[in-house]
Amino acid sequence: MDDAIRIDATRALSSAVGEAHGVAEAELDAIAPRVRQLHGILAEERATAKYGFYDLYKDTDVIDRVKAEADRFHAMGYENLVVLGIGGSALGLTALHTALHPPYYNLRDPKARDGRPRLFVMDNIDPTTFAQMMRLCPPEKTLYNAISKSGETAETMLQLLVIIEPLERAMGKDGVKDHLVITTSPDRDRVPNAPISLLRPVAKKYGLTAFDIPVNVGGRFSVFSQVGMFPAAVLGLDIDGMMAGCAAMDARCGQPDLHANPAYLRAALHYLLDTRKGKTISVMMPYADGLRSVADWYCQLWAESLGKQYDLDGKNVFAGQTPVKALGATDQHSQVQLYREGPNNKVFNIVEVAEFSETLPVPNTLQCVPELEYLRGATMNKLMAAELQGTVDALTLSKRPVIRVTLPRLNAGTVAQLLYMLEVETAMAGRLYHVNAFDQPGVEEGKRIARELMGADC
Ligand code: PA5
Predict the structure, then answer these.
(1) Does residue 167 come out as left (phi exceeding 0), alpha (psi in the -120 to 50 range) or beta?
(2) DSSP three-state, residue 342
(3) 139 in ligand 1 pocket by Cβ < 6 Å?
């Protein structure tokens, strides 16, 4: 694949940053058989459909239905798409939208948006934000997509309670089905082990279009399921390109050898850096505005999957590396001081886009300031690349391990490769830490307490 993303781990090795802070080739070679063995376990679990995220891109029936429904709703000509959802039900779509749509997308006129709706992802319950969204998005011009796997998350349920009344008032009971789509766990009568979703009776009452979230796909692994793909298709994003990106990365991630498998190499490096070199923090720092929300998405994936009190044998382990997001070059001016001179307890994931969709030449202006000669005649692209290289070199000089990820360009295929690789990496990292990467008991408990505080019968 021409657009294959590349991983350069040389700056995370002891040969670059010293034995105390980098991984020795011998340590990688020593862990390779374990990775190979864990690959066998993961492959078996995949084969028995324990985890569904690996194969979402292959489900052409689902993808075809998602696209057909998206086309049907697109034809209705909405001005706004409002997603009601939180965590894994929101972050994937936001990452795709930020990466694949032009900046300031919502400010563009409808023609410049190819007639696609503006997007509002309501992943919080800040009353000011929500009330302002409702003023900007009158129900008659809006398609809502309520997304919740459990179908009971208080934030999402409350949002639905708030929008349904004005929606029904504006459109009538029969009109609601043209403005509200739900994405949630399947009905229990079809899939007996599915969570009981409170969105199902809503779908029934209004005759809504409803998408199933497969039971074996967790929220933070659901971006390529109906959760991310339906709203992405309504927004006109390139679904086929994303599926091709997943397929390309899956082929690379099928390799049991960590030297041939970018996800396993990254998982092994992060695990070794955390457990042997004290790198308890993983900084995700893309040098492209389009990837800033991928950093948010990664933070949830890494934190919720690996941050576990108990291991698979029930032993107290308090595992997990703390993910932190940063954005180059912006955060060079806020965080890099700490990163170079503060505690040497971080691994840096520097993500670059080799070729931006725009080239911005620096005009030959302000001759009155000769000191700016080094910038005149260059491009903004060149300065971004220099800033990135400067950060990588400076971190290396300070003996801070860096893993560089290069996307040849930003498109549906490369972004899908990146997300898919990070998912597989997380699955392998879970196995290396010997924790369950697919549950989130800590989150569930917080949800339960909040419901109780609100007076629910828990
Ligand atoms: O990854 C996860 O499982 C969580 O972050 C959930 O996505 C989040 O809590 C929202 O849950 P739900 O989709 O059930 O509303």
Answers:
(1) alpha
(2) coil
(3) no
Does residue 204 have an active-site annotation?
Answer: no
112: in domain: yes
SS3 assignment, position 405: strand
Domain count, the chain: 2
Residue 75's domain comprises: 53-238
Identify the residue whose C-alpha is closest to ligand 1 atom 12: 148
Q: Is 452 part of a structural domain of the chain?
A: no
Catalytic residue from among 67, 259, 434, 447: 447
Q: Are residues 281 and 349 in the same domain?
A: yes
d(CA 340, CA 105): 35
From CA 260, how far away is CA 246, in angstroms rounded?
17
| Sign (positive or negative) of CA dihedral 66, 227, 112, 98 | negative
Structure tokens at 6: 């590349």
**Could you tell me if the CB of 153 is within 6 A of ligand 1?**
yes
Instruction: For 362-418, write each residue's pLDDT tens digit.
Output: 999 999 999 999 999 999 999 999 999 999 999 999 999 999 999 999 999 999 999
Nearest CA owner, ligand 1 atom 8 = 87
- Count of beta carbons in the 10 Å neighbourhood of residue 21: 21
CATH code for the domain in which residue 347 is found: 3.40.50.10490
What's the pLDDT band for 458 if we cut at 50, 70, 90? Answer: low
The phi and psi torsions of 244 (rounded to 5 degrees) equal -65, -40
d(CA 397, ligand 1 centre) in Å: 40
